[in-house]
Specification:
The complex is a heterodimer.
Chain A lengths: L2 H18 L1 H38 L2 E5 L5 H10 L3 E7 L1 H11 L18 E6 L9 H12 L3 E6 L1 H43 L1 H9 L4 H40 L1 H6 L6 H23 L12
Antiparallel strand pairs in A: 1-3, 1-4, 2-3
Helix pairs in contact in A: 1-8, 2-6, 2-8, 2-10, 6-8, 6-10, 8-10
Chain B lengths: L1 E9 L5 E10 L4 E5 L6 H8 L7 E6 L2 E2 L8 H6 L1 E5 L10 H5 L1 H5 L4 H14 L15 H13 L5 E5 L7 H16 L3 E5 L3 H7 L1 E7 L2 E8 L25
Parallel strand pairs in B: 3-8, 3-9, 6-7, 7-8
Antiparallel strand pairs in B: 1-2, 1-4, 4-5, 9-10
Helix pairs in contact in B: 5-6, 6-7
Classes of the chains: A alpha+beta, B alpha/beta.
Chain lengths: 303, 246
């Protein structure tokens, strides 16, 4: 029997078997769909969040706010000499006000020239790409020294809050993956039980097949494929449900800054393929575990 | 063709099923295996197609020591032996064609060849017109004939039958025995297990008697009513199924 013939036979038998044990198969498919739906949500959120954080990091500003007495050009020249700074720009109160008015036109009265809300002079430093990641101890010490310098009112590093967001995301991600793994384990167990149940339903047929000379590959193939199909169908359901939910929520996502940050775009084809492959693999593992080396029931004991 | 050398079979429970059994069945021989229930007939047959392994001794089938056949090669051994059981062992959800054609399909024959082989095997048992039926639609005798067709489809050199008439009334049993005699006439070695002494007396041939796991006699009977030529339903009038058949 050629591989293609065998595959056709496996597929036909697996479909018959799925139909025969429709209820338990549905249970297995739904279990895997739920666990992969959760995994899909996590994948979507963590990938979008990672992209957002990377973008924020690229745009992250390092700003030194000065008091009126400080010598801004001298400090800017000094900042540029630090190994992690590639450039520095002095923002005088006029430029600062212009930027503020551009960003918040309705609040422009607050920073009117000569008013109480006059903005301080600041220096915006551009950091080397290598320092866009987690900050080193030396960098932190340098920032601390900068904060203590006379003429420096405050040092604002955007990466402070970006790192907080990252820590929160990492925690949520770890929690989610753990939950997904538990659910996936449950799915594998369910699939294993379903395949085992089916194998028991077919125990007489299996015994007959063995007696007429069927190989283990031929006997087990349909069961393995049944598990794979359950996993694939479950994964496809999960992707479909995720897409439906995403499409439904998309208009609202655009209105929310946070939602936009964690759900800007749907899963890529590669990620969808990954979820489907994961479902199929879970199904295969379930059926292999269920049948084991000696796992297929055999009919007829010594008489 | 089939040789047993001092074969003993003891089950893990300690039960002794066969005790120092030795015999030889030559190529093309027809041999009855008889004895009371629990004598070890089924165990002996199961040893031949490696459903069991002997605790002691050697079994040689087709010149090969059956016990030393690797696990992965057992299916190939079984394909060379046709096996028929008392309870037919047909797959209820499959059609007669699918039941019979199992081995050719396994061997990768194309559908046309599968049809031809199935038709030929079913014609030999007089049921080529029931290809599309399901086992439950057939009588016990017909089901047993289907099981025989399945055993014959790959033209095995050996056919072993475990009480194939045990579930049938005397007329049907007679019909099944005739089929086995026909198989034998074509040169196939047949080992036919039965506890029906009357049947053996009628047919004759070599008889191995097993009692409590031991061969107590090995003799030949002439037979008081030699089998008549096989008369089957007008199956030969049927043509092989066309492309729209299974």
């Amino acid at each position: 029997m050629t591989f293609l013939q065998a595959l056709r036979y496996f597929l036909r038998e697996a479909l018959v078997s799925l139909r025969r044990s429709a209820r338990v198969s549905t249970l297995a498919v739904l279990t895997i769909a739920v666990s992969l739906l959760l995994a899909g949500v996590l994948l979507l959120v963590s990938r979008n969040a990672a992209e957002s954080v990377a973008a924020w990091r690229e745009e992250a500003r390092f700003v030194v706010f000065l008091d009126r007495a400080a010598d801004a050009p001298a400090l800017a020249a000094e900042l540029v000499r630090a190994p992690w700074v590639t450039g520095a720009e002095v923002i005088d109160p006029v430029e600062a006000r212009r930027r503020f008015e551009r960003s918040f036109p309705s609040l422009s009265a607050l920073v009117a020239e000569g008013g109480e809300g006059q903005l301080p002079t600041s220096i915006e430093a551009r950091l080397a790409a290598a320092d866009a990641g987690p900050r080193s101890a030396e960098f932190r010490a340098w920032v601390e020294q900068l904060r203590q310098r006379p003429g420096v009112e405050a040092v604002d590093d955007d990466r402070d809050w970006i790192e907080q967001v990252e820590r929160t995301l990492a925690f949520v991600r770890a929690l989610g993956w753990t939950l997904s793994a538990v659910l996936l384990g449950a799915s594998i167990f369910t699939i294993a039980s379903v395949v085992r149940f089916t194998a028991l339903l077919y125990r007489e047929e299996i015994a007959i097949m063995r007696l007429v000379g069927a190989t283990e590959f031929y006997i087990r193939g349909p069961f393995y494929l049944e598990g794979v199909l359950q996993g694939l169908i479950g994964a496809a359901l999960a992707v479909a449900a995720l897409f439906a939910a995403y499409s439904g929520l998309r208009p609202r996502i655009a209105e929310s800054l946070i939602a936009e940050a964690v759900a800007a775009r749907f899963l890529s084809p590669a990620e969808i393929a990954l979820l489907l492959a994961f479902g199929a693999l879970a199904g295969l593992v379930g059926s292999v575990v269920s049948l084991g080396r000696e796992g297929l029931p055999d009919e007829g004991r010594p008489r | 063709m089939i040789q047993f050398f001092h074969v003993t079979k003891r089950f893990p429970t300690g039960q002794l099923a066969l005790d120092d059994v030795s015999f030889e069945i030559g190529r093309g021989e027809f041999c009855f295996l008889t004895g009371p229930s629990g004598a070890g007939k089924t165990t002996l047959l199961r040893l031949i197609f490696r459903e069991e392994t002997p605790s002691e001794g050697q079994i040689v089938v087709h010149g090969r020591n059956v016990a030393s056949v690797p696990r992965s090669k057992i299916p190939y051994l079984r394909r060379s032996i046709g096996v028929v059981f008392q309870d037919f062992r047909l797959i209820d959800r499959k059609t007669i064609f699918e039941n019979v054609v199992f081995l050719p399909r396994l061997l990768g024959h194309d559908l046309q060849r599968q049809r031809r082989l199935a038709f030929e095997a079913l014609r030999r048992v007089g049921l080529s017109h029931r290809m599309n039926a399901f086992p439950r639609e057939l009588s016990g005798g017909e089901q047993q004939r289907i099981a025989i067709a399945r055993a014959l489809i790959a033209e095995p050199e050996i056919v072993v039958a475990d009480e194939p008439t045990g579930n049938l009334d005397p007329d049907l049993a007679q019909e099944i025995v005739r089929l086995f005699l026909d198989i034998h006439l074509r040169g196939t070695t047949v080992l036919f297990a039965t506890h029906d002494r009357e049947l053996i007396q009628r047919v004759g041939r070599r008889v191995l008697t097993l009692v409590q796991g031991r061969i107590t006699s090995d003799h030949r009977l002439t037979g008081i009513a030699p089998p008549e030529p096989l008369v089957l339903p007008a199956a030969a009038d049927h043509e092989p199924p066309g492309r729209d058949a299974p």
